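Annex B.
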Amino acid sequence: MNVNIENALNHKTIREFKDRKVDKEIVENLLEVANHSASSNGMQLFTIIRVTDQDIKDKLSEIGMQEYMRRSPELWIFVADLYRNYSIAKENNMQNDEMISFDKFIQAFTDSVIAAQNVVSSAESMGLGTDYYGNIHNSTQDIIDLLNLPKYTYPVVGLGFGYPNQNPQLKPRLPISLKSFVNTYKVFDNYNEEIKDYDAEMTTYYDLRESNKRSDSFSLQIPKKQGTIIANRNKMFETLKKQGFIVK
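Putative nitro/flavin reductase: predicted structure tokens.
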């Protein structure tokens, strides 16, 4: 099997890393991987903040309420960035509101996510472990202030990576038949019936895994995770407008 496909099929979130810095050459290569990622209209609407200051790591960990975040050897924050291109246009007296519109924000958000995933795939191909940090949205404004992000920028996702110090079990996924259709969206008559085997598999997974054992299933997680809001995340849209994006 192709090594990239094998790595993708065996992707695991790594939260604990060895106390070892990632080689400088690897870091530089991964930055170039991000730089060469696909970009909407070639506008390259993302920026990476590489966090090397331990005090900032500690504060990010506190804001995101994930203690292990502070121990990431490499910690990058991917930022949707309309500021750079808007500034270029302004210097040439060619700026307009469309450059900071919600449409362009979505392009920048997508550019950031694509770049982050390219880094993850490349890092894992070199034997590194990775962990996405969506917890930066627990208080987006605090992240903006901490990293001195200017107007027309917005933090999208954090990424930690390094040499793994754990080997967690592979987490089961929903059958692809529920997530992949041909030509049109397929609506099922009974979703509980469709996922009953997966629910049982997830219950076994939580019961047998080495850490944080509990009785749980996918169907029970939906109302707990998708059906509730994490404190302050209801302020994200307000923060987006405060950052200067034109949303209508």
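The first helix runs from residue 3 to 9. The first strand starts at residue 46 and ends at 51. Further annotation is deferred to the next reporting cycle.
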